[in-house]
Amino acid sequence: MVIHYLGHSSFRIKGQATSVVTDPFDPKSTGLAFPKVSADVLTVSHQHADHNYIEKVEGNPFIVEGPGEYEIKEVRVIGYPTFHDSSSGSERGQNIMFLITIDDISILHCGDLGHKLTDETLKSMDQVDILLIPTGGVFTIDAKVAAQVTSQLDPGIVIPMHYNRKGLDQNIYKELAGVEDFISQIGEKDVQPEDKLTITKSQMPEETQMVVLNG
Length: 215
Known about the structure:
alpha/beta; Metallo-beta-lactamase, Chain A; seven-stranded mixed beta sheet; six-stranded mixed beta sheet; 5 helices; 15% helix; 31% strand
């Protein structure tokens, strides 16, 4: 399985037979270019323009936008309802986390999660191999809470997303923290960005490792 970071909260996950794209973004809402990409399955965590630019994804994908369990080709997707803020959705509404299982690897995409996970959510969720988690704060959890959620889930690999970076529209996102804050919270040192993550189930580390992807 191969994971590419497309930027912001969007990834392309390519299995042996099926591909998934998460949270495609409108360039006008981010300042980032969205690449030409196709998918069999497309997940949308919530209906904001920096997460739901579905018309840009080619391949006539099956679109998953809500909670529940879905089986599409060789992919299993489970949507877990959460909130976009720490006030039960009163500020920014609902957010859906998606647990995507492909090539026997489970990947949790947190969307714009705004809070720590409840015991109820944790009990209902299978083991997470790879965690894709927002870390920039302001519109989502910040680096400190992201580290706490990482500890709650104990994944093999954690990949940060939705943080400040070069090219992001600073008129909108200037208050977002960079990825360095999360690296510090996790306690990692000298993390070098990679162009992609290529991994099999048997290669999954026993203790959580951080991977930062170029996007």
